[in-house]
Amino acid sequence: MLDVDGTSLTSEDKELLGHPLVGGLILFARNYQSPEQVNELTRQIKASANGDILIAVDHEGGRVQRFREQFSAIPAMGQLWQMANGSLEEAKLLAKSAGQLVALEVMSVGVDISFAPVVDINDISEVIGDRAFHQKPEVVEPLAKAFIQGMHSIGMKCTAKHFPGHGSVKEDSHIAMPLDGRNKQEIFGIDMQPFKGLMQDNLVNAVMPAHVIYPDIDDKSVGFSPLWLQEILRGHLGFDGVIFSDDLTMEGAASIGGYIERSEAAQQAGCDMLLICNNRSAAVEVIDNANLIADPISQSRLQKMLPKTSINYSQLPQLAEWQQARTILGIS
Q: What total of structural domains would you count in the chain?
């Protein structure tokens, strides 16, 4: 999964999108000017791709919302508990409405998935913070469940992140290599608990692992660890959905080596799709030189992430779900 720099495609973008190893594209704020423009951009992306392509965006609400102008200002998930005055039932209604609104608006401009929800706990991590629903796992799980049910009710698949939990690590993996020195019992019993519960309810379509090393379990960060991805996630938790790597250009991925080494290690560990963002030369280097395969099992999993319904941006105001979700969230 790659990115592009502009609000329309260059000839190099189109050439890269046609490569058989490219199966996805992630959009950022720089790619957005208006609903009409981004809808045309997603149309161009699909027309240039070699077969189906998965178009994604980080659109969680709060400070992580790539499309803003003429989109609803969705509150941070960490604000929902206060908005509900500590009522779990009210917070679940807010979370479900947020999931519906994210799905409706993002899908209405031709984007297939938002990488959401954040299932981390809001503990000491500055990069997570109010992106998480709550500091207690027993509150995070039902609110994440409601958010996912909202997404699913519109036809969007979810991505639970950042497995098994980034909230208890202070360092930001975009710029550092986070280490979580706690014992296995604590990590499994606290941070991983909401992920486990959502998977037991068969609600999770995809997972994005944390660029974090948990030395009590493995000396590799999660996205490069067969122990984490194959034994714990696929084996112990029985997860059979998509595993997306987090961005392989982040500093938290640097412990593995260069971009080729990172890509090969992530695929060998069990990632179905590799994200290489904000570094075109790294993307080209990996596509040209890395020993990667287009795995049919991964392709089958990724195919299931594509929505089966289409929504038109201009028709959103006529949709009862859109009106109701905005009213519940207090968006005028």
A: 1
Give the domain extent around 124.
11-46+71-328
How far apart are alpha carbons 219 and 129 in whole angstroms? 26
pTM score: 0.95
Could you give the CA distance from residue 95 to residue 241 in angstroms, rounded to a whole number? Answer: 23
Q: Looking at residue 172, what is its pLDDT?
A: 54
Does residue 134 carry a catalytic annotation?
Answer: no
Q: What integer pLDDT is reported at residue 175 of this predicted model?
A: 56
Q: Is 152 among the catalytic positions?
A: no
Series of mean pLDDT values for 10-residue runs along the chain (332 residues): 97 96 97 98 96 96 95 97 97 98 98 97 82 96 98 98 87 65 94 97 96 93 96 98 90 76 95 95 95 94 96 97 98 90
> Is residue 65 assigned to a domain?
no
**Active-site residue identified among 174, 216, 288, 295:** 174
Residue written as token pair 């194959």? 230
φ, ψ of residue 14 to 5 degrees: the values are: -65, -40
- 38, 64, 103, 138, 194 from 119: Cα distances, Å: 28, 14, 17, 11, 7
Ranges of beta strands (E only) in 144-279 are 159-163, 206-209, 242-243
66 assigned ligand-binding residue: yes
Q: Where are the alpha helices (DSSP H) in 5-34?
A: 11-17
Measured between alpha carbons, how far is 26 from 31 in angstroms, rounded to an integer?
10
Consult the annotation and say whether 162 binds a ligand. yes
Angle between helices 137-154 and 88-107 (to 10 degrees): 40
Q: Is residue 60 part of a domain?
A: no
Instruction: Kindly give, in sequence order, each residue whose CB lies less than 8 Å from that of residue 247, ignoring residues fewer than 6 positions away.
Output: 174, 253, 275, 276, 277, 278
4 within domain boundaries: no
66 assigned to some structural domain: no
What CATH number did the domain enclosing 19 receive? 3.20.20.300
- To the question of whether residue 161 is assigned a binding role by annotation, the answer is yes
Give how far Cα 76 sits from Cα of 13, 122, 182, 204, Å.
Answer: 33, 12, 28, 21
